[in-house]
Amino acid sequence: MRSMTKWRIPLSKPRLIALSVIGVALAILPLVVESPYILHLAIMALIYAALGMTFSMLFSTGLISLGCAAFYAVGAYTSALLVMKLGLSFWLALPLATMITGVIALGIGSVIVRYPGAPFVLVTLVLAVVTQQTAGQVELFGGWGGIMDIPSPSIGALQFTGKIPYYYLLLFLFGMIVLVFQALYSSRIGRAWKSIQLSDPLAKAVGINAYRYRVSAFTIASSAAGLMGSFYAHYFQTITPDITGGWVSIYIQLYAVLGGIGFYILGPALGASIMVFVPEFLRLVEEFEPVVTGILLIVLIVFFPGGILGTLQKRPRFRLANLSDRIRKIRRWISTGAL
Amino acid sequence: MALLEISGLSKHFGGLVAIHELNLDVFDGEILGLIGPNGSGKTTLFNLVTGFHKPTSGRVKFKGEDVTGLRPDQLARRGIVRTFQALTLFRQSTVFDNVFNAFHMHYKQPGWKAFLHTPSVSREEDTFKQRAMEILDVTGLTAQKDKLAGSLSSGYCKLLAIAISLATNPKLLLLDEPVTTLSPDKVEMVMEVVTRVRSAGTTVVTIEHNMKAIMDYCDRIVVLAHGRKIAEGLPREIAKNERVVEAYLGSMD
Questions:
Q1: How close, in Å, is residue A99 to chain B by CA atoms?
Q2: Whole-model pTM?
Q3: ipTM entry
Q4: In degrees rounded to 5, what are phi and psi of residue B23?
Q5: Which fold has domain A13-305?
Q6: Number of domains in chain B
Q7: Which tens digit of pLDDT belongs to each residue from B17-46?
Q8: Could you tell me the residue range of the domain that residue B187 belongs to?
Q9: Interchain proximity A207–B76, CB inside 8 Å
Q10: Contacts for B95 with CB less than 8 Å, ≥ 6 apart
């Protein structure tokens, strides 16, 4: 007998509308903005947003990984080498590099996921640092100068030139990542991850194989990072060991934490957008950046552990009521000549 | 053949002997009380039987199958489920989600279908949502279903722990101090649920310090002291057992 159950979209109506609006805005961005520099920022923001989401996916299982940057580099270098040494087309190298990154992540993850908590954080940090060192010391990877002149993709006779074709390709890849991640989070897989995050022993006691779910998260997240790496290599056309390492991993964590650690998709998107665009508008001096970043991270974790979205969620009246009160106070001060 | 057969079970933590050569049978359909002074090894025994610790030596057989040393989730899937003493719950989830998530191992639809959110998966989820509501009803938690587990009073927390374990549809349910610190009316409510659970076919082993609850509701009692079984029998026999009294009084020194 035919069942009457329909296919359900795991998103509420308001969320779906918000997502569509954002999607359309992103789609028409290159038509509205002419500056290639802003487009470049948008591309980097999308890449970092995706990387932040890989951090969040691991966080959703209770693991804090400082190794996201490592798999980003693995994807980038693998893709570059596949094209330049093996002569593969970009369109083959992209999925292949992603899969290779995934296999490596599966191997590493299977081992390190057995040691959650502080050891895991440390090991992933070491992973990021080692990846950077390997990229820099090994000749095959071009040493500290990296790999240059990575060819741009082409569709038939049409070569990718300028930012726009890259932007739309990335938008498509980014969209895929968001769709896959959201589908996972709203399924019993995501629920298992959440159970493991909230209480590892209880999750096991109700029959959830915590190890297997954590390895899955690690593999999926790292593959996404590898995908972004592969794209970046052919977009920027130069990759150096600078694209990875301990610092980059910490930045990736910052994107997720700034946006809101409980928001696995919107959080990193918001955090990455702010971190990529705001410094440019403020023209912060480059030397101070790590210091500012460090202070920002500490302030966030201590005072606003929920990040922007988390803080807004907890105190919905925070912005509106207090803001009008404060404006009134300031007006009074001005009128009494106190200022 | 007993449902659970423990033979020669020992657990050493370095030099400390937590459990020593324990032999214990749990019979199908009974409510077995496990008592003893603090530190006698009751929770360690639970940890050993449910895979949270590996035994130093000895065997655990469940339904005739050797399950010694299996992982907690493997044992849960075989029907051995436990609650925790320290109010272990999914604190940042709602009461309903706590129970709903506990159906995890019962899903028949494969993972890739879950990822795609096929109608068959939605149907399965609906079934479990309904069963979650039924369990909430049986344990008296329906009014709390949308509250965060972390915000519940300890009485409701204990009920939720039992509700979660019920979702797993256990054959053998190990309750770790289900009514400790509860008021008498809550104690009665919880033990009523336990009795109903037994009638539905689940065997129960419960660690408790609340002597009245143990005496009223348990079919048999096993007494541990210093990791050894010092007495076993019907409640009224245990109450009169001198060694048991001595073990409790002795531990108050």
A1: 18
A2: 0.87
A3: 0.88
A4: -120, 125
A5: ABC transporter involved in vitamin B12 uptake, BtuC (1.10.3470)
A6: 1
A7: 999 999 999 999 999 999 998 888 999 999
A8: 4-250
A9: yes
A10: B136, B141, B144, B145, B146, B147, B148, B149, B152, B156, B160, B163
